[in-house]
Amino acid sequence: MTWRRRAAVALLCGAAAATPRAADPAAKLQTILTRDLQFSAGELADLERGRTVRHSLKASSPGEIGVAGATRVNTSKSRLLDRVRDVATFKRGPDVLQIGTFSTPPVEADLAALTVDAEDFDASDCRVHDCDVRLPADAIGRFAAIDPNAADAQARGAALLKHLIFEQVSAYVSGRPGRFTQYDDGERPIRPLDAFADLLSHERALDDLVPGLRDHLREFPAARLAGAQEVLYWSKEKFGFDPFITVTHMTIVCPEPALCVVASKDVYSTRYIDASLSLTIAHDAPEPARAFDLVYVNRTRASALTGFFSGLRRSIAERRARSGLEERLKATRAMLER
Length: 338
Prior knowledge:
The protein is of the alpha+beta class. The chain is 36% helix and 22% strand. The protein has eleven helices and eight strands. The chain has helices at residues 3-13, 25-36, 41-48, 77-85, 87-90, 137-141, 153-174, 192-201, 205-209, 213-219, 310-337, and strands at residues 53-57, 64-73, 96-101, 229-237, 244-256, 259-269, 275-284, 292-301. Strands 1-2-8-7-6-5-4-3 form an eight-stranded antiparallel sheet, with helices on both faces. The model is unreliable at 1-23 (pLDDT under 50).
């Protein structure tokens, strides 16, 4: 019996309850899908039939939302990797208003195409504990030098915000001091690095998928994953009432011939997100021969989902996240199969 046939039998019979042998990559992935990513036997059977499946994940924090989904794509996973590497084209859509990639190393001109309008950021309305974007107190204080009555006040505020984003990215890539460790835009401080470290600590699948991936994401650039490709990009996206600007670090690695993983972490977001981690898993399908299973997982921490009315806000956000994930998986499958 071939390993492809063994994988199909395991999926249909729910054999993932037992700990797999390290030498059996299909069984290892089976365990990750059921134990860590909470796919049911029924969902895996539907995946075998070519259906798109998705569900919410149990949260490890009051402000966390997690979703997971999967679909079978009838083409080689190399097509997915080619598209992902060209992230500015791959992510283009109605909710992505602008997008661009950073050079290696980043230069400030990488952000030249990013526009910062009044709905994105108004420097005259930004004070410590009362600002529309996520910034530490010392960064917020730098906007006090801009005369709000000046004709170029908006342009100067936009330029300074882009410069601060560039400084954040440069510190992240180089490992030098200067990263934003605390946001002081609201009544309560938010510590994004601590939020991401805690989020990582609850994602059991990372090192089972790719040994060393957890350290790579947590300690970058001090700990780098051998053979990985790195893509750093910025985007302005529609979400909620106002758009937000975000910087994302994407790591692409294929630890086995049948398996490739794309891990994406939030480096900075002007609104909404405290910390975020997503995994895109592409694994050769048992049948047909030229197909792969595309699995997507996202966990996001947002302080807006805590406190008064948090249950209602979470319910709405989770419902939107599940439906959005299903639409995204189907659109990705259609694009890759064309």
